[in-house]
Amino acid sequence: MYTTINEDGVLNNYATEPQIYYAEYPSTEEQRRYSFQAGVATLLLSALVLLAFGVS
Q1: Residue 4 near residue 12 (C-beta atoms within 8 A)
Q2: Tell me, what's the pLDDT at 29?
Q3: Which of 9, 22, 33, 54 registers the highest number of CB atoms within 10 A of its CB?
Q4: Which residues of 25-37 are buried (b: 16+ CB within 10 A; e: fewer)?
Q5: 3-state secondary structure string across the chain
Q6: Does the pLDDT value for residue 2 go beyond 80?
Q7: Each residue of 22-45: pLDDT tens digit?
Q8: pTM above the 0.70 mark?
Q9: How many Å from the N-terminal Cα to the C-terminal Cα in the chain?
Q10: Phi first, then psi: what are they for 48, rounded to 5°?
């Protein structure tokens, strides 16, 4: 942590900044896994909506 003191004796604390890095484009295996997760999530959401309509 970086600390400074101004003329009035007030302390100012500054957080340390993390290193910046760029995201990488997902590989074909990761893209396949993401599409599988999207399919499972869609099925789960559809089942919940149909169950809510069936109960009401």
Answers
A1: yes
A2: 97
A3: 33
A4: eeeeeeeeeeeee
A5: CEEEECCCCCEEEECCCCCCCCCCCCCHHHHHHHHHHHHHHHHHHHHHHHHHHHHC
A6: no
A7: 999 999 999 999 999 999 999 999
A8: no
A9: 56
A10: -65, -40
